[in-house]
């Protein structure tokens, strides 16, 4: 130990930190860890929310296109009754094409929605579990 100007001795480099210092370090590290995990969870939930929003929009778009398809098919039935061949055949082709398009858009929306579920920040949960396991391992060693 070396003498300091005021007469106290400075601790040597090989001494272990006190229990109070260890608790202080633990408290600081846990605070930083919790803040970082919350930031990760917030980021992950934000990404999933955006995926759900896009998926819901596409699903709604598919529903709107299907509505136009139904309108065309109704026009087809009306024209089919009033005319013999050409007008209803055109309306049938357009209506079928709109319904096919609506199916494609609805399936794309469903795929996007399935990417956003379950609405759990899985990366953050996995990270917290890994942190807990690391703390347990170090506590037992």
Walkthrough of the structure:
This protein has 141 residues and is mainly α. It has one domain (20-140). It is 80% helix and 3% strand. The chain is built from 3 helices and 2 strands, in the order ββααα. The protein has helices at 19-82, 86-115, 122-140, and strands spanning 2-3, 9-10. Strands 1-2 form a two-stranded antiparallel ribbon. The radius of gyration is 33 Å and the shape is rod-shaped. Residues 1-5 have low confidence and may be disordered.
Topology:
Layout: E1 2-3, E2 9-10, H1 19-82, H2 86-115, H3 122-140
Antiparallel strand pairs: 1-2
Please give a handful of descriptors for the protein shown:
mainly alpha, 80% helix, 141 residues
Structure in a nutshell:
The chain is mainly alpha-helical and 141 residues long.
Q: Which structural category do the helix and sheet elements fall into?
A: mainly alpha
* Number of H- or I-type helical stretches: 3
Q: How many domains?
A: 1
Give the CA-based shape. rod-shaped
Largest sheet: 2 strands, antiparallel
**Residue-averaged pLDDT, rounded?**
80
Order of strands, main sheet, comes to 1-2
| Model regions low in confidence, pLDDT < 50 over at least 5 residues | 1-5
Q: N- to C-terminal separation?
A: 30 Å
Order of helices and strands: EEHHH
The percentage of residues in β strands lies in under 5%
């Amino acid at each position: 130990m070396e003498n300091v100007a005021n007469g106290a001795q400075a601790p040597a480099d090989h001494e272990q930190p006190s229990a109070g210092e260890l608790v202080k370090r633990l408290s600081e590290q846990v605070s930083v860890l919790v803040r970082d995990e919350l930031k990760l969870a917030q980021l992950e939930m934000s990404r999933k929310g955006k995926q759900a929003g896009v998926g819901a929009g596409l699903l709604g778009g598919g529903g709107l296109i299907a509505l136009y398809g139904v309108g065309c098919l109704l026009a087809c039935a009306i024209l089919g009754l009033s005319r013999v061949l050409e007008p209803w055949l055109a309306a049938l082709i357009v209506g079928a094409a709109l319904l096919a398009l609506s199916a494609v858009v609805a399936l794309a929306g469903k795929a996007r929605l399935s990417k956003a579920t379950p609405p759990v920040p899985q990366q953050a949960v996995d990270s917290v579990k890994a942190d807990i396991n690391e703390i347990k391992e170090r506590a037992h060693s």
